[in-house]
Amino acid sequence: MFGFFRRPAPRPLSEAIRRAIEKDGAAAPVSDPSQLRMVESGGRYSDRKVTYFRVFVPVLAAQQSLDVRQFNDLDQHQSLIVRSGHVERDGTVVLTRAIVVRAADRPVRTQADRTMHADDAHIVRGETGASANVPAPQVSASEHAL
Predict the structure, then answer these.
(1) Against a cut of 0.70, is the pTM above it?
(2) pLDDT tens per residue across span 14-29
(3) What is the CATH number of domain 11-96?
(4) Which of 21, 50, 99, 121 is within CB 3.0–4.6 Å of 45 for a Cys-Cys bond?
């Protein structure tokens, strides 16, 4: 009647979304676009009413024992989302670029030169007692003036 009691379910891609994905030229994870499904959610973008969508491969979701029925079902499974975006009220499809997070390069660590800091063994190695603070070599006044 009004669809109030109808369960949300993924549906095939609309023609406009399928064309937008093809036009974008990104490599599809499946050879047949009819295998893709999408889920939708109403929302706002820049104070305009839009319909957000997420495209996924149902076979991959099933392999992870995930039953995708609505938009939020993919929140914790971002890796399953093939494409996403929104559709404006006039039918314009806007695709969202996937964000690729690259691991930061770790700096190469080297051993510190401890020869200039013989008096801090208790801090560095947690030593106590006589071995902790070995007296530093005494510098004479004549060597110090140089």
Answers:
(1) no
(2) 999 989 988 887 666 6
(3) 3.10.450
(4) 50
